[in-house]
Write a structure and sequence with these properties.
Layout: H1 7-18, E1 23-29, E2 32-39, E3 44-48, H2 62-65, E4 70-74, E5 83-84, H3 91-105, E6 111-115, H4 117-129, E7 135-139, H5 151-162, H6 166-176, H7 180-187, H8 190-203, H9 205-219, H10 225-229, E8 235-240, H11 248-258, E9 262-265, H12 272-275, H13 277-289
Parallel strand pairs: 3-4, 3-6, 6-7, 7-8, 8-9
Antiparallel strand pairs: 1-2, 2-4, 2-5
Helix pairs in contact: 1-8, 3-4, 5-6
Amino acid sequence: MTIRTDPDSWAARECLLAAMPVTERRVELAGVSTALVEGGAGPPVVLLHGAGEFAACWLRVVPDLVKTHHVVVPDLPGHGASEVAGDPLDAARLAAWLGELIECTVATPPALIGHGLGGAAAGRFAVGHGDQLSHLVLVDSLGLGPFRPTPGFAVASVRFGLHPTERSQERMFRQCMLDLDTVHEELGDQGPALASYALDVARSPGVQAALKRLFPQLGLRPIPTASLARIDVPTTLIWGRHDRQVRIRVAETASTRYGWPLHVVEDSADDPAVEQPQAFLRGLGAALAATGQRSRR
């Protein structure tokens, strides 16, 4: 499964990565030629992006995180520049990939931070591999309950998935952000690069195939409550107050049921790390400050 990008969008990707204080490299993990970036020194953190996204979607928080942590940010299998070969991608293979990623990039168990689909993957991994993690942070995560987005989000998502154009992307972004115009202003020159590469990724047959395989297994199918109850690693929820994809009541229910602290980010929809990066970092910092590092077993 090859990720194809045109020269202009590849230049956009390089522009986005150049804005982050990280080094890019490629490693083979579970049959996935994985593109990842990493930087900084200190306690390790691994960031997993959402469906149809890529590592540079964390660009607004990575520059601060690398000041105090060893930060590892991969493109998920079939996303961005991570190419899948061999057997079809499924939840089990994604878990194997994540285990190999942790093993080859960090010396001690990391804090695993997952957004959206990446959160669903992180949560499932933590059920059986808590000893490999120091903390689990789920950010507007799928998998904690039935997938019941607002009608507006559902329509925009389907239209963008079927016909990824600049117009349908704009409508999708306006569902993902509470105030897209302000985000555009704050991103400056990075905004057009982010939109250009995101559109090319959405059009990629490899990404479409990955989502067709993974979203039904990880996004539509909730993690069983009995499994979530077995997670024994410290877990924190960070959620945008106005998330239209996974609404705040899902996080509130999980927080009450499992005793997980919930940090609500005001003035944000489903991606607080992009829309309110400083508020996101405050919530993440509070979670990580309480985390001790484990020795590799």
